[in-house]
Amino acid sequence: MAYINAFWVGGLICALVQILMEKTKLMPGRIMVLLVCSGVVLGAIGLYEPFQEYAGAGASVPLLGFGNTLWKGIQEAVDTDGLLGIFKGGFTASAAGISAALVFGYLASLLFDSKMKK
User: Fold this and answer.
1) How does 23-62 read in b/e, with b if 16+ C-beta sit within 10 Å?
2) What span, in angstroms and rounded, lies between the C-alpha atoms of 3 and 67?
3) Please, what is the Cα angle at 69 between 102 and 103, to 5 degrees?
4) Would you say the C-alpha torsion 90, 92, 97, 101 has a positive or negative sign?
């Protein structure tokens, strides 16, 4: 059942984003920022954890999950380091994911013949 929940929740998030892209004048970058900020807000008010427990990877993989990861990192850093944690917590929490994205993106550029879109 966990796979089914992850599939339909992740699909619903993607469908809502697609509707936003087609029915509004929002650019994709702004929609991505909206998703990350929504993940932060949902984490801050305590709604993201139960949502993620129910949906699994359907909630943790999209950009909502990245926003929640940033929030958790900032929250932990503020608890241990005080006000300075606001500035370093997000970097600490998301460093592994961002590094992996950079490394795999570079490897993909070496393996495949990428071209500029015309």
Assistant:
1) eeeeeeeebeebbbebbbebbeeeebeebbeebbbbbbeb
2) 22
3) 10
4) positive
* Distance from C-alpha of 58 to C-alpha of 60, rounded to nearest angstrom: 6
* 3-state class (DSSP) for residue 112: coil
pLDDT of 9 reads: 93
**Average of per-residue pLDDT across 67-87:** 91
> What would the pLDDT profile of 35-65 be if each residue is shown by its tens digit?
999 999 999 999 999 999 999 988 888 888 8
Where do runs of H (alpha helix) occur along 24-111? 28-44, 48-55, 57-60, 63-81, 85-111
* pLDDT of res. 113: 81
- From CA 14, how far away is CA 16, in angstroms rounded? 5
Query: Contact, 58 vs 10, CB < 8 A?
Result: yes
Per-residue pLDDT at 115 exceeds 90: no
By the 8 A CB rule, do 63 and 10 touch?
A: no
Q: pTM for the whole thing?
A: 0.78
